[in-house]
Predict the 3D structure of the following.
Amino acid sequence: MNTASKRIAASARNWVRKRDFYAGALMILLGSVAALTGPTYQLGTLMNMGPGFMPTALGVVLILLGVIMAGAAVATPEGEDEDILPNPEWRGWACILAGPVVFIVLGMIGGLIPATFGCVFVAAFGDREATLKNSALLSVAVSAFSVAVFHYLLQIPLPLLTWRGL
């Protein structure tokens, strides 16, 4: 490996380390805001949670995860090779970001089952090795699980199947 490529590789490793550190710092900041804002509402108890309980709890979890992430970035040795993606995964990003949009649209039009199926089916194509069969099987499994959990167990008031038109 020549010196120019070594410098580029070292620069990329430093960038990844800095990116992880800044991501951890951002998580600490957002967690701090949530953890400090949550107690301004009524916290309640574990058995009778108030509106401030979840923001406070999630803020504390975000702070802990941010500390772990930033600490891992700082503790990474200088010479350790890291996996650096040479090309951004645009297809994966697009499919994963399109999944919730599909869920919202199909949820308003068709209900929980088509919304969950469509969301998972679209998001599954973010994987380069995804096939129609694998994506469909995953979508069916996740849809069945979501019906069991959200409709029957949690009794979320979203109809399973409906047609509201466009």
